[in-house]
């Protein structure tokens, strides 16, 4: 189904599989799953994350792909790109892409920079590996902006937020 508004679910959290996926199924909508390939099936322990959420495993991601969800790369390690050398950046871009192709058998065309951060000169490097990337990381909890932005970004999300968003879409 072609959604009017793109729904992004960043980080590939188990929460997305358990809570958001069934609701989206019910509404007949699909989203974009931005996964951190080095953390598939693992607990999150990157920089600013304190609550140790778990990421979904390959089987769970595959199930969502089979239901029409799109996979985007959200890097391998979720490091802030602005701290990376050119070589490190390329590794994050290539390695995550290769992982997705090998393990999920889909070709990712979009990259979602961790924290929505990147340096100006890094844009062209990202675009050497992906057709496009999301330039905004706003986690939109006030859905008034949705219509204008045409997309919403979720991490761990409450059913209430998601239902509200789907209500705006419908
Ligand atoms: Zn993230």
Describe this structure in words.
This protein is of the alpha/beta class and 170 residues long. The protein has one domain: TIM Barrel (Alpha-Beta Barrel). Helices cover 38% and strands 13% of the residues. It is built from six helices and six strands; from the N terminus they run βαβαβαβαβαβα. The chain has a four-stranded parallel beta sheet. A two-stranded parallel sheet has the order 4-5. Helix 1 (14-27) runs parallel beside helix 6 and helix 3 packs parallel to helix 4 (122-129). The longest helix has 19 residues, at 86-104. It is globular, with a radius of gyration of 15 Å. The structure holds zinc ion. Zinc ion is lined by residues 10-11, 74, 78, 114.
Number of strands: 6
- In CATH terms, what is the architecture? Alpha-Beta Barrel
Oligomer designation: single chain
How much helix, percentage-wise, in residues?
25-40%
CATH topology: TIM Barrel
Write down the secondary-structure element order: EHEHEHEHEHEH
Write the layout of secondary structure elements.
Elements: E1 6-11, H1 14-27, E2 32-35, H2 58-66, E3 70-73, H3 86-104, E4 110-111, H4 122-129, E5 132-133, H5 146-149, E6 151-154, H6 159-169
Parallel strand pairs: 1-2, 1-6, 2-3, 4-5
């Amino acid at each position: 189904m072609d959604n009017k508004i793109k729904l992004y679910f960043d980080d590939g959290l188990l929460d997305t599989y358990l809570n958001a996926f069934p609701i989206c199924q019910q509404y007949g909508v699909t989203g974009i799953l931005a996964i951190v390939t080095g953390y598939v099936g693992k607990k999150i322990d990157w920089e600013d994350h304190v609550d140790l959420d778990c990421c979904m495993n390959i089987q769970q991601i595959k199930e969502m792909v089979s239901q029409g969800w799109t996979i985007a790369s959200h890097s391998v390690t979720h490091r802030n790109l602005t701290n990376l050398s050119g070589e490190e950046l390329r590794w994050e871009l290539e390695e995550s892409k290769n992982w997705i192709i090998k393990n999920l058998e889909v070709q990712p065309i979009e990259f979602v920079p961790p924290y929505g951060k990147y340096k100006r000169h890094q844009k062209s490097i990202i675009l050497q590996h992906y057709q496009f990337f999301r330039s905004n990381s706003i986690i939109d909890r006030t859905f008034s902006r949705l219509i204008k932005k045409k997309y919403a970004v979720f991490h761990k999300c409450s059913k209430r937020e998601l239902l509200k968003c789907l209500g705006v879409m419908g």
